[in-house]
Amino acid sequence: MTSWQLSTPTSPQQWQDYYQLRYQVLRQPWGQPEGSERDELEAQSYHAMVEQAGQVLAVGRIHQLGDGRAQVRYMAVAPQARGSGFGAIVLAALERQAERWGCKAIVLNAREQAIGFYRKANYQLGDVLEPLYGIPHQQMTKQLCLAGTPQDWLGWSATLQQTWHNTIPLSAFMQLQIAEFDGYQLRCTAPLAPNINLHQTMFAGSIYTLLTLTGWGLVYLQLQSLGLHGHIVLADAEVRYLKPVKDGAVAVARLAATDGSLAGLAQGRRARQQLQVELCSGDEVLARFSGRFAVLPEGVA
Fold this sequence. Notes:
Order of helices and strands: EHEEEHEHEEHHEEHEEEE
CATH architecture of the largest domain: Roll
Strand content: 35-45%
Number of strands: 13
Structural class: alpha+beta
Distance between the termini: 48 Å
Shape: globular
Helix content: 25-40%
Largest sheet: 7 strands, mixed
CATH superfamily of the largest domain: Hotdog Thioesterase
């Protein structure tokens, strides 16, 4: 199978193909003229696309709204590529750009048939909008950053790390540390020396523990931000070990990559959240963790 590539359009041909897919998917079927797939914000927006075998198969755009939010527009996937996951790849790239801009949330206007796609990416339903070209639309939003101040985040992180070391002796032996939590993502590290194997790389059990506790920690930090309490347990997990891990690797869990609300705890209900954690060295991903955590209300065994 030909490999795919995520990029932003740069060459004249890439821009032409990028806009052509927008037009063919989002405007042509409703008799709209060419050019209607563009607006006055193109130059100040961030654009992402997936190419495969010289074809542009998925596109999307994001721009800042000026109030701490960003808006996703013009998401389109070629008919032959639907179900490939390319739309989710483009959306994740747009979310990362919004994080780089320092936006706190993303808003978008979803076509009726796309609501399920965005809900799977943890977007929440908002106002029902006026139809466009006769197609029902609904506003959807997603939080990228936890509520709180940098001082709050620092305090919660210090408490989290102390909780690990006090209640999970392995984490102290591993010298697991929180490198940073900025409201958007939790970054954790563990040095190679206490976690080394006979190949002079990180022991697989240490990698699993580092990734699991980083995911557990992001759930904990969300509870702090929401003012909620509960018992966090790992219900299911899968780890893919992609490359040997040496010094300098960082486990990264992003709020934008979580799926599932914790708000039900406020009514005494169990909550569940699926999340992803990557172990990275620079831009290289060394291991990936996918885990489902359950949060039990206090007093529930």
